[in-house]
């Protein structure tokens, strides 16, 4: 659930299946003084309640400009140890960083650090309509969120 801090109004409310070891959410400040939210989980269409024992956790993007849209980005939580979203100051380039490696209960193994540009994942994302009414085309939504500008909170 995402609640507007000034009014307390619910901006967005959705259940995503999530495992205890899933990475926590991250936020990025946008130039329009809102926040883009990156959330890990598994979205299931209402009425399709069949669950696998270990759901495939994916990364989703939500922005309050589109309260009826969830973007499913390319990554899954397979072997993610740490996750964070950040900006590079000079270019205001938004990205997220994934540290992948063996889980705590596994044998030691390889560790890799990956930086993903948020724009690249937005352009290749899957648009999930949370309501039956789609007011814009999927490509329009992707294009608009692709052009989103970010700013530092500092």
UniProtKB/TrEMBL annotation:
Q: State the InterPro entries in the record.
A: Beta-prop_FAM234A_B, FAM234
Query: How is this protein positioned relative to the membrane?
Result: Single-pass membrane protein
Domain FAM234A/B beta-propeller, first and last residues per copy: 1-151
Q: Which domain of life is it from?
A: Eukaryota
Where is it located?
Membrane
Keywords noted in UniProt: Membrane, Transmembrane, Transmembrane helix
Pfam families documented for this protein: Beta-prop_FAM234A_B
Q: What is one term from the GO cellular component aspect held by the record? A: cell surface
PANTHER family assigned to the protein according to its UniProt record, in alphabetical order: PROTEIN FAM234A (PTHR21419:SF7), PTHR21419
What name is this protein filed under? FAM234A/B beta-propeller domain-containing protein
Species source reads: Spheniscus mendiculus (Galapagos penguin)
Task: Name the lineage.
Answer: Eukaryota, Metazoa, Chordata, Craniata, Vertebrata
């Amino acid at each position: 659930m995402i609640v507007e801090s000034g009014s307390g109004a619910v901006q967005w409310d959705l259940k995503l299946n999530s495992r205890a070891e899933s990475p926590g959410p991250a936020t990025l400040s946008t130039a329009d003084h809102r926040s883009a939210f990156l959330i890990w989980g598994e979205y299931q269409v209402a009425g399709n309640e069949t669950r696998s024992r270990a759901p495939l956790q994916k990364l989703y993007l939500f922005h309050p400009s589109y309260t009826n849209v969830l973007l499913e980005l390319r990554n899954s939580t397979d072997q993610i140890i740490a996750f964070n979203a950040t900006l590079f100051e000079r270019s205001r380039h938004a990205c997220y960083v994934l540290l992948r490696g063996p889980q705590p209960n596994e044998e030691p193994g390889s560790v890799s650090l990956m930086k993903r540009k948020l724009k690249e994942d937005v352009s290749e994302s899957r648009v999930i309509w949370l309501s039956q009414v789609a007011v814009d085309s999927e490509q329009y939504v992707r294009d608009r969120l692709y052009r989103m500008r970010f700013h530092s909170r500092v």
